[in-house]
């Protein structure tokens, strides 16, 4: 860098000197010309005015008069002398000292006589530069002699020397200033950022920091370059950790799932076919924020799991375009390539009218099916209108999907969740060659409970269009089979967990959804969870020794109120924790257009305030209610800093917060308190399991978790981590897709429509 600066400075000096020298040379030359022309003009005026007097005396030969005139004029400023010569160039009259100054006769004296015209020149005499002007004298047009005017021109040389000196000084000052300014600019906006970028890249290469910790504002002009480098560094880090993971797996002879393994697995399963995913939520939405548009990624396990698969096989994801800037980012076919930073698969956006969104999403899906499937004692609402929009929206999504699949033979389709119960049948009807799976992310209730729904038969028939129906846990599969058995004419094959209906077979199977299990970066490993806890609480003006965290969408199924009541009871029963124990509840507002959800948010806020009012002191309060969406990174900090994570859902398909907390605890510390009514409770047996309706028991569990023997705490967390690491999100996607691709589609079923169309043709 130093060598570079020296070269830069020398080149600058050379360039500025050259330019300044040429511009000064030009200026000086112009000035010299102007001074000389001025002197010549003045000499001519003097000669012409003298000539009038001299002519007459010269003709009559009055030498005395001529001498008198010569002496009188020669006293003028800068005049070196005056002489009058005859035509033979012999002096008739001359001012004193002129001959000594001139030493030799200038050539212009002879030339003026020979040419009979005015001549002038500059000569260099011993005393300095002289200007000589020679004017022929006439009488009656006859040449009678010449007048010589000699000026001292040395002042012009002095003036020119002064100009050169000033120019030199100017060049030196200019060079110094420009070099100084350039060096400062280079250091400030190029050399500094380059040095920082180099340091950062070195740390990144050595795995000492993460790309997330780069502050682009520090890199100034290099920002665009830094962004590109961040992408490369991220790929490098990902490739390095994938390679490390693979090596570790080989070493341990394990067969855990990774994003890379999943990609390879899915490519080999799909062969020449293609994968299509359909969900209500899109993996990327474009949202106006002030004058800019932000790309939002939902904090969803589904995106984590399916993104690598879609990237690996150039698949297509069909979803509701819900961002207000979404229409601005699609092509004429409502498609765009994602991920935005490195496009690898297609996102097809489906547009819904306001009425359709209200009826299908808010109404039927979230006020009907959601409370129906979650036993949380919120009454489901079934409205004819909502049902109509639900059917209409399912049809709309199926049309979009069919369009996307037009060119693909034997497509593989993964339908997601309770928003699309009717879709599998709609797809299969048009494309019997498609392999269709639907994964139901939420619980499936008992047959009696599901029977409340006026359209249960249509929903079940729609679902049974799928070849594979996935649930989170085995008991949801049982409930589903029982519901089908009671509601529809079909043959249930309990031995293979399948339903045969109208010659089509649907297999029912559990696939426990999970989370990614990233290895900690060196920077994360170096963090001190305790220091971070102090910093996190300080943001809310709270000091506490013990920290618990809860992370939920604000939903009545999550048991957030019950959690607050348990905290209150624990503080009543164990006053030693007053002033020392705080629960940070991260509450992401959700589905707030629905009154039940809107009211719940206000209720929870009021409940936390009530409890805080009872116990709080100037520096402490028992509940910090964080009512906003938090980024994954922000939530991870709380996970790592907490003593406890509280998951108290009244009913939950799986609950990924429980698994995220375990995945985040690299330090093998922390206790998970988990509701026994979550799907996760079937796997995470080392959590402290609670019945959230039993406030007394949950309060005791919180205290027991805080006072758990450290060895037991570590042992439990180690076992939990082993399980989540093995049964991670890639395992979920790999098993689901593997199962679907491995299924044998009924040949007669596949060929039926072709036969039918032939019959029509006849
Ligand atoms: C549950 C559902 C998902 C849904 C998520 C968020 O986990 O199973 O399908 O995406 O809640 O709800 P939202 O209505 O905001 O998509």
Distance between the termini: 83 Å
Number of helices: 24
- Extract low-pLDDT stretches: 752-762
Radius of gyration: 48 Å
Structural class: alpha/beta
Topology diagram in text:
Layout: H1 2-60, H2 63-73, E1 79-85, E2 91-94, H3 98-102, H4 107-115, E3 119-125, E4 128-139, E5 142-152, H5 154-205, H6 223-252, H7 259-270, E6 275-279, E7 285-289, E8 292-296, H8 301-313, E9 316-320, E10 335-338, E11 345-350, H9 354-373, H10 384-405, E12 412-416, H11 423-430, E13 435-439, H12 447-450, H13 456-463, E14 468-471, H14 474-487, E15 491-493, E16 498-501, E17 504-510, H15 522-526, H16 529-538, E18 546-553, H17 560-573, E19 581-588, H18 595-615, E20 623-626, H19 632-641, E21 644-647, H20 656-664, E22 671-675, E23 688-690, H21 695-706, H22 710-726, H23 729-741, H24 747-761
Parallel strand pairs: 6-9, 6-12, 9-11, 12-13, 13-14, 14-17, 18-19, 18-21, 19-20, 21-22, 22-23
Antiparallel strand pairs: 1-2, 1-5, 3-4, 4-5, 7-8, 10-11, 15-16, 16-17
Helix pairs in contact: 1-2, 1-5, 7-8, 7-23, 8-23, 9-10, 10-11, 16-19, 17-18, 17-21
The structure holds 6-O-phosphono-alpha-D-glucopyranose.
